[in-house]
User: Fold this.
Amino acid sequence: MKKIMKTLVIVVSSLAFSSLAFAGSLEVTGTAKATYNIQNGYASTGKGLGINNHIDFTAKGDTDFGAFTYQIQMEPSGATQTIADSQLTLATSYGTLGLFISEGGLDLEDAGSRGVIARATDIGDLGDQTDNGDISSYNNFQYHTPAGLLPFGTVIKVGHAPNTADTTINDANAAGTARTASVTTFGSLTAYQITAAPIAGLSVGASYMDTGENGVTGTRVNQKAEWGAAYAKYDIGAVGLGFSRSLNAPLNSLGTAQTVEYYKADNYSISFNVNENLSVSYEKEKSTRVGADSTADATQTTDAIQAAYTVGGVTMAVSHGETDGLSYTAGRKAGNTILVVSMAF
Assistant:
């Protein structure tokens, strides 16, 4: 009898563990990237070697409500590897709900770039351009409409960050970080994004982010912070075209002299796939600072050419860019060449 009971216990335990093992899946992906950065011109830091990496652990499974995905991302922080970002989403027939910790970007400022490595001012520390903010800098929750619900492949996403002081992964039972109100901070953010593919080869989209609870309690602001962007990308055979425009209105408190009304940035780019392994691109960015009066008006421009060769999971790439009007100051010029070897796993 004891042997029979023991056998039954072993069988039931095995089935339980098997059920747990096959209830979902766990994937580990990431990249390791080595760079050699060469700078020249104004405020040059010379040459530098670096290695960067990120590792994603992604768990997926099904529930009675829909499919869930849980992901954490590990990145280097000084001499240690830390959990940098996290997200938990539930995809249903009515759309996707998600909780994002330093993830879930909705701003489309970079969406029009056809740079084969990255947007020109996002690589190698080239330029000092004032970019849009994004809700991914804060802990936020989002809703996305399901694919196929709206015509022309339209997808709408809405996100809200209730407290901009929350930017790290907190214990689920602990309170979030308290926000100290000041004339340079805002308490909450709401972001919107819409994208569509109206015809073959064409994708378009727009995004907007609005801030709430600006400034000190009881103190009005002269201008609240808000950001917006729109883009279009079109593929014609081996050629890819891209354009984007972004607008950034910085927070300005009442009683404080306002020097900058907004920033406007235009991005034009083109890419060409020479063959299935080699791609090249050219990109031009122009960022204009519009002042409250003409004395603060200034422009920064950046031009970059890039080439990337991919074979297997290895990409070897080079980017060279030049910036004029660095930090929105006339006469300041800087150059940047960066060599990249990236391995995906």
